Structure formats: C-alpha cells, structure tokens
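User: For a reading group we're discussing how well predicted structures match intuition. Take Alcohol dehydrogenase, iron-dependent. Before you show the prediction, I'll give you the sequence so everyone sees exactly what went in.
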Amino acid sequence: MEKIHFSTQLWVGDDALKELETIQGKKIFVVTDPFIVESGLSKEITSYLSANEYLIFSDIVPDPPIEKVVAGIKAMNRFGANVIVAIGGGSAIDAAKAMKYFGKRTLKTEIETFIAIPTTSGTGSEVTNFAVITVPETATKYPLVTDEIQPDIAILDTNLVMSVPPKITADTGMDVLTHVLEAYVSTEANLVADAFAEKVVKLVFDNLEKAYRDGTDRQARANMHLASCMAGMAFNLTSLGLNHGIAHAAGARLHVPHGRMNGILLPTVIEYNADLAHYTADNYAAKRYTALANCLGESTKNPRMGVQNLIRAVKQLRQKLDMPATLTEFGLPRETISQEQDAIALAALADGCTSTNPRRASLEDVKKIIETIS
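Assistant: Thanks. Here is the predicted 3D structure of Alcohol dehydrogenase, iron-dependent, as structure tokens, for the group to look at:
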C-alpha cells in the first residue's frame, strides 16, 4: 500500500503575496539571503506582514553550512518566533527547514506555520520534505528528509522570478529537469508522480530556453515556476537517484553550482542507468526513459532509440543554455578532480538519494562516471 499526500497549500497568482495580510499578531522569523534584502524584495514581501512583529535573518549562503543553521536557531529562539517565512532559492528554504527541525530539538522552538516563497524556479523545496545541509569540515552535503520540515504554505508568484539572471535560470531549470527524470525512473515511482513528471518534462523543453534567452517572457517564466513546483511534488513522492547523489558529493567538494553539476552529469547517468550494453527485455530504466522521450514528440517503442533520443535532447538543451558539458569545461583542473574522485564516489554511494536509483551502483561505477564527465 502507498500513502500519498500533499500537505503544502499552494497560493498561486500575481496577487498571492497579498494573502499574507491575513496573518496577524504573530512573531515571524524571515529567513532569506543578502541579495534578497539588498534588492528590496524582502521589503516588498514584508510590507504584507505589517500586522505582525518580524525579524529578518539574512546570513544565508549557497549550500548552507550547519553553522548558519545554528546561528539562525539561536536568533529565532531569542526572538520567540512562532511563524517562519523563507524567501529565496533552495539555500534559504533548506536552511529554514533545518532551523525549524533542529530548533525544536535543541531549544524547544515551536513553529505554528512555515511559509516558503521561492524566488528561483529550480529546487521545488517549497513543496518537499527534503533539505540539504553542508558540513564544511568534511565537505559533505547531508540530506534531511522528514515530514516535519514540509512547508505548510508555498507562495508561487511569477513576479518574484522575472529578474533571475540567465545563468541562474539555466542552472535552476536543469535542476528541475533532473528532478523529474530521476523521479520517473526511481524505484519508488508511482502513477501520481509519473503524471507530474510527464507534464514537467514537456514544460521544461518548451519553456526553459525561452526564459533563458528572454527573461521578460512572462509565460515562459510562469511555466518554469510551476514546473519547478510540480517537479518537487513528484520527487517528494519518489525520492531521486544517483545523479543527485553524485551532485551533492561533487558540489560539496568541487564547489560547482548544483544545477550545473546536475546538467553535466545527466546524459552520462541516463546512459549508465539504461545500461544498453547489457539490455534485456525487462530493462526498467530504459523503458521509462523511452516513455519520457516520447513525451517530447518522439515516437518509438525501441528502448535503444528512446534512450538515445532522450540523451540527445538533454545535450542539445544544455548546449542551447550555454552550460558546460564537462568539469574541465566548467573550469576545474583535472588534477583537482582526480584528487577528489574517491571521496566523491564514496559520499555519493552514502547519499540518501542514491538508494532509489534504478541501477545499483558500485564504487567503480561511480568513479567511471566521474572520469567520463571530467
């Protein structure tokens, strides 16, 4: 038996932020990053919270380290917060999730309502029970997975993503694509997640390049923002796979932006999972990848052709987004990659996302993937 539930309420539309005015008499802890504060975006959003006390905590950096989470927990406790509003990309929302979870366990902080307001279209963190926290001392990213960190409300407002720079649009969009490709071939895949994934794949290929080339294309921005949310709903049901397992490990040690790392890995991981060299009639991943390729307008029942069509489509999209195909093309020296290869491979195998990959990977398998993308 499967239990499927979506506990996050979505507020969607150009006037969605105005609904924040219904919150009154609360002590709101706002978690965001310095850019959101400097750009004036946090001021715009907090203007709807005037019937409350609020404190802005903006000491958030990409791949939030545990010390930032600890600092946030202490500030939240001193303030006496009972509501959290997280504004930003995955880093701000993930940090807020960790603050909520660990704050309850360390300082007995009780949060009544957790609201996530994404300002990028990529992580889907606003609707998931996932967070990723970095421990710098060991250069390790740890997934935190529990329903306790699922936001109660997610606000999707296209206005908040209209000014996202092209490079971040590309990185976050490739993360969306990776989320649904991994959800679709996950060992925990189900029909509900499949429906989200099949729709999102088409949305990404129809809209991501448009949003990248012309950031003022409102429809493309809106479609990618919704696609990101739907992708989050998909992988929240199924978990992810080896692509994210390696991306977490390599991102922590090589400091490659998460979406870009996913984009570098994706064609190679698809090829690995499909295992066409040893193809048999019951090859689960190859058949699933073929079904997704057919969502893009292809029409084949031949898994070999279907997988090749999907890999070709991903590579072409990556090229159109001016994204690197290898780690050296990204700018990393081969020596650096070689030095970190074993540690990355070990960390990837230990990553929680890897456990639902359709093909069980060995240490040598992962090292070979890293060599291929070097």
